[in-house]
Design brief:
Arc Repressor Mutant, subunit A; Rna Polymerase Sigma Factor, Chain: A; mainly alpha
């Protein structure tokens, strides 16, 4: 297998930088096409599973490195499902490593503060995103996966079933439970916030 570096540099957050790949010559064009089409999807999944923007950048490269090494085993209709499963695995590894490095929490807080927009409206949106990220991080993995893929990424029930390797009926059941739990957790978080804000 030959090694190459494919650059996809853009100014947009979450767009691919340099992805190191090892592919057979006949697979390289397909790999490049997959990166271009699905990099943003993989990056967003990593963010939704609690990674900071900088960690998501690094983790996305790991995801696509795994794909480059296994591309011949991944059928074309299953590419996004493979990327989702790989992204959740990589995100879990990053979280395990970070639990052994508590000092990175301060770095994350500094990074978020630096990125805070000055406009009130943008600040409200940022807080809403942070609330959603926090609530999602507290949800069970099986429910979080379904809500992320359906509500945030727009996958069909069939695509989610492929990604999670479960029957479509299970996806529908989990989605109902996930929506109810998400709504309950968001309402509880907002209520706690209001209660704290009104205390003298």
């Amino acid at each position: 297998m030959s090694e190459s570096v494919i650059a996809h540099a853009t100014a947009e957050p979450g767009s691919p930088g340099e992805v190191a790949v090892c592919t057979r010559p006949g697979s390289e064009a397909r790999f490049v096409a997959i990166v271009r089409e699905h990099y943003a999807f993989a990056w967003r999944v990593l963010r939704r599973f609690g990674l900071s923007p900088s960690d998501a950048d690094d983790a996305a490269q790991q995801v696509f490195l795994v794909l480059s090494q296994r591309i011949e085993d991944v059928a074309p209709p299953k590419e996004r499902a493979f990327l989702f499963r790989t992204a959740t695995y990589v995100a879990a590894k990053v979280h395990r490593a970070r639990r052994r490095r508590p000092e990175t929490l301060a770095e994350d807080l500094e990074e978020r503060e630096d990125a805070a927009p000055p406009a009130d409206e943008l600040l409200d949106r940022r807080r809403a995103r942070e609330l959603l990220d926090r609530v999602l991080s507290e949800m069970p993995h099986d429910l979080k996966s379904v809500i992320v893929l359906f509500e945030l990424e727009g996958l069909t029930m069939s695509e989610i079933a492929d990604a999670l390797e479960v029957p479509p009926g299970t996806v529908a059941s989990r989605l109902r439970r996930a929506r109810a739990e998400l709504a309950s957790r968001v309402a509880k978080a907002r209520s706690e916030h209001l209660a704290g804000a009104t205390k003298p």
